[in-house]
Design a protein that fits this description.
It contains three helices and 15 strands. With 238 residues, the protein is α+β, with helices and mostly antiparallel strands. The chain has a five-stranded antiparallel sheet with strand order 9-10-13-14-15, with helices on one face. The chain is globular and about 60 Å long. It starts with 19 loop residues before the first helix and ends with a helix. The N terminus is likely disordered.
Length: 238
């Protein structure tokens, strides 16, 4: 479990004059190189964004369609263009035309505002089943292999859900909170987990992450509540 340590102040060296434009170009070049170089995560080699980093996207107005299959089951489809909130490092990333096949597991929270409008938010996980390079007409895995990967992933999630979760019960800002935290198994090492899915007072709040800078939970704005949840988790693993 990551803990925050106090950094020893370091005296800054006198600033030296240099060409700012050249430095900026060099930084962009290094960022692109770092993005594409091979990395390792638990014995698995990969390229692209380093594990632990984040993307932020803006979605255009799109079409979400759903058809009711049973009282509790719906078929959904969604099509839209998403746009990077920032900019990719110059010279980095896959070529235009590259495709990905993801499988998404998520909680969708909806609240009715009026006869025709609802608020909606989603938190969850997405898992890469395959990709197709821009210069090839073949996916990296056959449909059969993709199905096997999906079955394996779902089995791992089911196995994790069947285990006893981390219990949560605490007081914060005059309110009692009770719930549980389910570890995200790929983030667990030596019996300690850095990411857990949080449910408090029967409401799913999303996934809490233990970062070097402290606890983060995107679905919650109150950092004090996030820290209180993190403290409960920390005491459980201690």
């Amino acid at each position: 479990m990551a803990t925050t340590t106090r950094k020893t102040p370091v005296k800054k060296k006198p600033a030296t004059r240099s060409k700012p434009v050249a430095k900026k170009k060099e930084a962009k070049k290094d960022a692109g190189k770092a993005y594409d170089e091979f990395k390792e995560f638990e014995g698995q080699h990969y390229t692209g964004m380093r594990v632990g980093r984040s993307h932020k996207w803006k979605y255009d107005a799109g079409d979400w369609k759903e058809t009711k299959i049973t009282p509790d089951l719906w078929e959904i489809s969604y099509a839209v263009t998403k746009r990077r909130a920032g900019r990719a490092p110059e010279g980095s990333g896959v070529p235009t035309g590259t495709e990905y096949h993801w499988y998404i597991l998520a909680h969708q929270h909806v609240r009715k505002l009026n006869a025709n409008d609802y608020t909606t938010s989603m938190t969850g996980l997405k898992y890469k089943l395959a990709h197709k390079r821009a210069d090839r007409n073949k996916w990296s895995a056959t449909a059969k292999t993709q199905r096997k990967r999906l079955v394996k992933m779902l089995q791992e999630i089911i196995a994790q859900l069947e285990k006893e979760p981390v219990p949560l019960e605490f007081e914060y800002d005059g309110k009692t909170y009770k719930g549980e935290a389910f570890p995200i198994s790929p983030t667990c090492h030596d019996g300690v987990c850095d990411q857990l899915e949080i449910t408090l007072n029967d409401e799913n709040l999303g996934i809490i992450r233990c970062m070097k800078s402290g606890w983060k939970l995107d679905g919650v704005k109150d950092q004090g509540l996030i820290d209180a949840i993190g403290e409960e988790i920390f005491l459980w693993f201690e």
